């Protein structure tokens, strides 16, 4: 796989997702990544540390530049726990769990983030404002309700299917309610 091309494609993809999701400083973004799928294989079968490093660093750099926090979802062997910076976990009172991600238990994305983050910890759950799922890793459980899927500029990264999610507040109040002045409603 051409890693320079993958980096450029990932940067292009995350720039589009940032714009479409209208991410703001301080928000939380979840990434699910199957490097096996990016490399044209089957999820969980042939993880690639190199692909994980390229994809996670490209996304991390773009999100960090605008003050958005990255949470990297692990595979089912870690119950889809998420790797985040310790200061974020403490600030948001997230429950920290004890595990160090490995290539085949956590995945290439978590291993890359573990090396990249300043003080990484695993947490069980988060509620992110948006996310990117590269390779059908099922990130929806970590994006707040109401989730709005949208089509990013690229539908595939390497051989992996790409799905993006943003969110909006729930609409409440029934037929008597008005939503005309709610900015977040217009996002959906």
UniProtKB/TrEMBL annotation:
Gene3D superfamilies: Hypothetical protein TT1679. InterPro entries: Antibiotic_NAT-like, DUF436. It comes from the Bacteria. It holds the Pfam family DUF436. Belongs to the UPF0340 family. This is UPF0340 protein GX453_00925. It comes from Pseudolactococcus chungangensis.
């Amino acid at each position: 796989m051409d890693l320079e091309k993958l980096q450029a494609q990932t940067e292009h993809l995350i720039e589009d997702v940032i714009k479409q999701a209208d991410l703001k400083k301080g928000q939380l973004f979840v990434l699910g990544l199957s490097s096996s799928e990016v490399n044209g294989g089957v999820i969980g079968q042939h993880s690639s540390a190199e692909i994980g490093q390229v994809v996670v660093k490209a996304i991390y750099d773009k999100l960090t530049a605008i003050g958005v926090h990255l949470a990297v979802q692990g595979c089912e062997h870690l119950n889809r726990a998420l790797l985040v910076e310790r200061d974020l976990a403490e600030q948001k009172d997230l429950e920290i769990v004890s595990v160090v991600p490995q290539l085949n238990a956590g995945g290439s994305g978590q291993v890359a983030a573990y090396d990249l983050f300043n003080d990484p910890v695993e947490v069980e759950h988060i509620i992110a404002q948006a996310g990117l799922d590269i390779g059908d890793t099922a990130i929806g459980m970590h994006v707040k309700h109401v989730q709005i899927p949208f089509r990013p500029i690229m539908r595939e990264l390497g051989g992996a299917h790409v799905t993006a999610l943003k969110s909006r507040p729930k609409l409440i109040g029934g037929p008597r309610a008005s939503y005309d002045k709610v900015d977040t409603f217009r996002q959906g």
